[in-house]
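hey so u asked for the seq, here:
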Amino acid sequence: MAGSLDFEAYPRFLEEQQSHFKSNGRTKDFSAHSSKVHSVAWSCDGRRLASGSFDKTVTVFLLDRDRLSRENNFRGHGDSVDQLCWHPSNPDLLVTASGDKTIRIWDARAAKCAATVNTKGENINICWSPDGQTIAVGNKEDLVTFIDARSHRSKAEEQFKFEVNEISWNNDNDLFFLTNGHGCINILSYPELKQLQTLNAHSANCICIKFDPTGKYFATGSVDALVSLWDVAELVCVRTFSRLDWPVRTLSFSHDGQMLASASEDLLIDIAMVETGEKICEVTCDTPTFTVAWHPSKPLLAFACDDKDKYDRDRDAGTVKLFGLPSSES
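ran it, structure tokens below
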């Protein structure tokens, strides 16, 4: 069963994955934007990859075996697209958060903007509830607004007195998690939005949070350069990953919940075995990494870095990268 390996199977799984990436360790660059890429995410069926950029646009790629081909470039935002995410079960819909005080829902199949929702501030983080009914968006003033995904109206809003970094529902849709500037994880009931618990997770600003697809764990990344793995049922930290030296700004679990990618300003992406913390492999990068995302069914990792144009070092390259491709191009 996905997400649960017998203890005896750990060494074999580790060897199998290490062997897989030895022969599938190539990274390919795909031109996406005219400026830096802030966010990448896969549609639930894995057919499309979307990227959001400082250039105010959203690019959608189609995945064909080991190639990404550009399908569309969506324009309409008046400021940087800081984060995006797809509908959890509709592979055609995605939502973007922008500094222009709006969120936009895009229909990738119809190739158009399906809705523009005005919000109260410059938006920096966004997530879609697992049941698909609600979109939560956070802004620079630490206000989180809950928007009905069908009517596009605000259902609730919550103003926080601390720095809110990343936001996420749990997989069961009944809890809402925030990482904050004090190194804590705040847990609210949903939809009541009552504060239930605060977990002291890190010694410094807690930046990012991700839930594993199997619902067993969630992981957080921090300015203290640690990734901590938490048991969802017990709300206890079960292990930390400490191979990075710089603040951990992005995380992603593989589709089976067995691998965890984490990245920072280190010139590598760490890929760890979730159940033991052991290193499976690392992806070398020339520049700091902003965003990572495992494919929902394949061992392919999309990511984006602060890379510069090959011929003009003052210009951002705006590329999206795909790791896990066959090492020989034959």
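The chain has a mean pLDDT of 95. The radius of gyration is 19 Å.
lmk if thats what u needed
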